[in-house]
Design brief:
The protein has 282 residues and is α/β, with parallel strands linked by helices. It is 50% helix and 15% strand. It has an 8-stranded parallel barrel, surrounded by 7 helices. The structure holds flavin-adenine dinucleotide.
Length: 282
């Protein structure tokens, strides 16, 4: 294992399925649910996208066989969205069908704004056919309030996050305070819907606002869950479990880890310092 991989291990469960399942078993033992993500994005070859969907189906069969508490998170640009919408629809339908046979949920991750509309249109098509599919909404985007309302109308489960992609002011709030205010607004719309949604954040202010709103509205702890990324705010993850909140951890694995890793570094300057310190120590 190279130095870079060693450092990336802070955010990535491993390069192989076996390492990822080991991490999942540990998290399950600590009372946490998980979602597995095979790292990769912007795949432009249909053969590669087909083979990656096959890998997801293999992961789903292993979740069922090994009886771990896990579902799957999928990025559409990994599944051939850049080949064509119909190709991607058919490719991901295979994953959703395999998962449905074992009552496993499939979450469609949200990528950059170039893909938002096409991702949602595909999610609407899947949701008309299957009941085990949901998606992600980014509080940073102006359009998200309208999208959340549409998803609620259709009964589709949402993971609310702040948004990991750098977007221009024409599409997205640029100030953290504005993103946070929109996050809280969307969280309230989601919780009011009665649908089981997921609040994905490591930010104590967002978590506390969610807890306070739910308790004010008499929304039970079993009516929604919190989600965090593997390796980030571990103390907060344990704390929420102790307080009997549903806690799901996003567990990425695989060898195409650089773009995911880079987004995690960019989110926090301390991470860059952490890497630099280890680099010079080694
Ligand atoms: C389960 C899950 C799934 C996600 N799926 C998507 C998706 O599909 N599409 C998408 O665009 N984004 C996704 N994201 C990423 C999300 O959009 C944010 O980029 C990320 O969660 C950081 O935002 P935050 O809510 O933690 O708040 P921030 O304000 O960024 O961070 C709050 C605090 O959390 C801690 N923290 C946050 N990030 C890091 C980090 N990288 N390293 C160390 N500490 C950190 C720090 O203490 C920080 O002060 C997902 C996030 C989660 C938790």
């Amino acid at each position: 294992m190279g130095l870079f991989t060693l450092l990336a291990k802070r955010f990535i469960a491993g390069e192989t399925k076996e390492e990822a399942f080991e991490a999942v078993r540990k998290l399950n033992k600590m009372g946490m649910r998980t979602t597995l993500d095979i790292l990769g994005e912007n795949v432009t070859s249909s053969e590669m996208a087909t083979s990656l969907a096959d890998q997801y189906i293999d992961v789903i069969n292993s979740i069922n066989k090994e009886k771990v508490i896990a579902n799957a998170s999928v990025k559409l640009t990994q599944m051939g969205l850049d080949v064509s919408d119909q190709f991607c629809f058919d490719n991901v339908s295979r994953i959703i069908e395999a998962a449905r046979a074992h009552k496993i949920f499939v979450r469609i991750d949200m990528e950059g704004t170039k893909y938002t509309e096409r991702t949602l249109q595909l999610v609407y098509r899947w949701a008309e056919k299957y009941d085990n599919v949901g998606t992600v909404i980014q509080a940073a985007l102006y359009r998200s309030e309208a999208d959340v309302k549409e998803l609620n109308k259709r009964g589709i489960k949402v993971r609310l996050c702040k948004g990991a992609y750098k977007e221009p002011a024409s599409f997205a709030f640029q100030k953290k305070d504005d993103v946070n205010a929109n996050y809280i607004k969307l969280m309230k719309i989601l919780l009011d819907s009665g649908i089981f949604h997921s609040i994905a954040t490591h930010d104590d202010a967002m978590i506390n606002a969610t807890k306070a709103y739910a308790s004010q509205k008499g929304i039970g702890q079993d009516r929604y869950e919190f989600q965090m990324l593997y390796g980030i705010n571990r103390a907060g993850q344990l704390e929420l479990v102790k307080e009997k909140y549903g806690m799901l951890i996003y567990v990425p694995f695989g060898d195409h880890w650089f773009p995911y890793y880079y987004r995690r570094l960019r989110e926090r300057k301390e991470n860059v310092l952490f890497i630099a310190k280890h680099f010079f120590r080694n």
